[in-house]
Amino acid sequence: MIPLFLGVALVWYSLSKVSIEELIGYFKNADYTYICLGLLFGLMSHLSRAYRWKFLIEPLGYRLRLPNSIMAVFSAYLVNYTIPRAGEVMRATILTNYENVPFEKGFGTIVSERVADLVVMLSIIALTLALEFDFIFKFMSARLDFVKLLSVGLLMMILAIITFLFLRKSQSKFAVKFRKFVNGLVEGIMSIFKMKKKWAFIFHTLFIWLMYLSMFYATTFALPETSNLPLAAILIGFIAASFSIAATNGGIGSYPIAVFGAFSLFSVAEEPAIAIGWILWSSQTIMIILLGGLSLIFLPIYNRIK
What's the CA gap between 261 and 268, in Å, rounded? Predict the structure, then answer.
């Protein structure tokens, strides 16, 4: 419930910056050609993700049908609006129910995907730091205590090591089940090194993130106030928005505020900065609700026919 309450609070905060009437005005006056173009890029990224999943499943000795993969991906995105990251569990469950892939192995392949996605995301962050290092360093050093941040990180690392050593040697039922789950998880993760189509996997991984970035960039042209943003603003806004999705249920409330916070650094006024965040989030959310809902309906129908 905490992410949900946080999302509601952030929605209230964003509406304190721009009234509902003003927000509706921005939606009415937006150029929907660019919004639809952004939706097309977003759709292509989701379809590519569904196809990429097949490359990870095959080394485990299973064959994933593409329709099931597509519907599982959209269902997972929809479920993320109820509990953050619960969609990943949903994807593995669908794989178990309809493709007979053990849950821990299916979940392991999803973790593999996230590892690959994390590498690309870190590359985008590194590129952004290289382009705007002076600006970002001055901004961060004025707001963060790096000594405290490092201390907290070391403490969490020590606690994680102690917990790992305990679970590794303990013979309790929970520890045994945990180790079995981790072994299956590792097997799923290692499938990334066993796949025959490594280059195809790398291509789709890069294509997915290119489409994400293109979706974000194209939609900014929907408002005149955000149509001439520099590359640094697009990259920082994209990074902030990407991390905000994990903060609340499907990024509700947090996504527009993240975009607003990033664009305000580049002298974009409050109202259009928040409005473009809501336009970005709303357009993608409507697509996920529509396609995710249809996927949940047709999953059992398609597999019953098969």
Answer: 10
How does DSSP classify residue 172?
A: S
The DSSP letter of residue 19 is -
Terminal CA-CA length for the chain: 38
Coil, strand, or helix at residue 238?
A: helix
Asked if 229 and 268 count as a contact pair (C-beta separation under 8 A), the reply is yes
Structure tokens at 279: 């336009």
**What is the structure's pLDDT at 149?**
62
Q: How far, in Å, CA of 306 to CA of 302, rounded? A: 6
Secondary structure class of 143 (helix, strand, coil): coil
Closest C-alpha among 60, 70, 99 to residue 196 = 60
Alpha helix segments (H runs only) across the chain: 2-17, 20-29, 32-57, 66-79, 86-99, 103-131, 133-141, 146-169, 173-194, 198-220, 231-244, 254-264, 270-305
Cβ-contact 105, 182 below 8 angstroms: no
d(CA 289, CA 283): 10
Rounded CA gap, 250 and 35, in Å?
19
Predicted structure pTM score: 0.81
d(CA 275, CA 281): 10
Assign residue 226 a region: left if phi > 0, alpha if psi is -120 to 50, beta otherwise? Answer: alpha
Cα angle 296, 300, 304; round to 5 = 160
- CA separation for the pair 148, 144 (Å, rounded): 9
Instruction: Summarize pLDDT for 54-106 with one digit per residue, the tens.
Output: 988 888 888 889 999 999 999 999 998 888 778 889 999 999 999 888 888 88
pLDDT of residue 157: 84
